[in-house]
Input
Amino acid sequence: MKNEIEIRNVSVYYDNFCAIKSVNLNVEEKDSLAIIGPNGGGKSTLLKAILGLVPINQGEIERKNQKPIGYVPQYSNFDRKFPITAEEVILSGVLNKRIKILRKYSKDEINKAKELIKRFSLNESSSKKVGDLSGGQIQKVLIARALMGEPSVLILDEPTASLDVNAKDDIYNLLAELNKKITIIIVSHDLLAISPFIKNIACLNKTLHYHGSEEGVEKNVLEKTYGCPVELIGHGEIPHRVLKHHKEGKND
Amino acid sequence: MIEALLKYQFMQNAFVAAFLGSILCGIIGTIIVEKKMVMLGGGIAHASFGGVGLGYLIGVEPIYVAFFFSGVSSLGMASLKRKQGINVDTLVGIFWAVGMALGILFISIMPGYPPDMSSYLFGDILTVSSSYLMVMFAVTLLVIISIVLFYNYFLSYLFDEEFSLVRGIPIKLFENILFILISISIVSLLKVVGMILVIALLTIPTAIAKLISKSFKIHILVSILFSFIFCIGGLLISYYLNIPSGASIILLSGSVYFIYFFIVQIRKKRTYQRK
Output
């Protein structure tokens, strides 16, 4: 497997405050990675560093793929009253640094958007104001917008935060389907919300505490990451898999 | 009024100024309200007073100097805004007051009798000259062309700046263009409603339009329509009741907004009760 993103010894400081320190992380192509950690643990900073939104003070981040990154920001950060239709939001995903005067969307681009709208079952919502949609639908619109740029990797910031269980499932099924073709990186502070399709987990609290498959996460690693005792509990009905307990003899 | 409109040049000028001003208010007002830059607009408007004062001092048409002055100060605000650790709110307050203070200073040190500043402060649509209309026309044309040519980019920037940045769209360039458009629009509205009242004409029509618009294009068009109704209505009131036009335009807009707001509230309550 080729690497999609290589993060080597990356540190980011805001003035004198160290947000992340010496992070090393390789993300393979078609990997599905969840970056978890407590609030203020540097998850967003790492994400912004990958996206090029914050300057890196040390180390380097290398993209191995020429295709763009698809960014899906937190949907709750938007002004829900902004007058823009769902379709307009999705179409805006094709705009890039090649600025054209009187940029109109081509037939191909419009067809592509319509395909995504159909695939994500947004038919009835596409002509509505984006703020009038449900949280799950907005999230789908933002994913569709990111896909318009034909990315090789999709980076999602808290994609299921404040969604109900059904909407969460819907989003994760959709991501699992997309993951067959593209790399997916999710940032989440919600331990229980990690979906079964996620193959790898990175625990981040200023430094990277663990990176590997989900089965290997030990309880003490989580405790180190979160800085407090973590109880891994889950109910049978939760459709998401819960991190397993440390298995005897493994990783010892 | 139709009789007066046909008879007097100043009424014709006022009518054209209301029309051009409405287009500017519809476009720029919608942008600053959606981007939450209303106070910044206020800052630019008041900073332009420094330019007006400087114009009187050096004997150049004050409006031209005000264009330059507020253009430079808005670009200054834009570049300082991008630096981390500077609060935009504070920045706007500083530019706002320093611009005003410079204006007062320039006028106090100019030789001879101080000019009457009230038309810049509160506007007087009935004194708009033909040459001023040409300036307004040029500014309106420039704003329309810039927005139409890059409409989709501006929309993407206004809705989600971060995403646009990740996509490689030169946000800084668009932001600078936008700041210049805002400052020249505000300066060319000075004679219509004045620098103190301009903020109301930029926000009220667009705030009403927002409640009934689904897309950004419609939002802008409806805002233009409301601005025009308010300007002409205000002009009528001003003409017949002989009160200052700037005040009548703004008071008319404000009253309509509050009436509309209460109707919406009552309707909301009723649908809630029915449920």
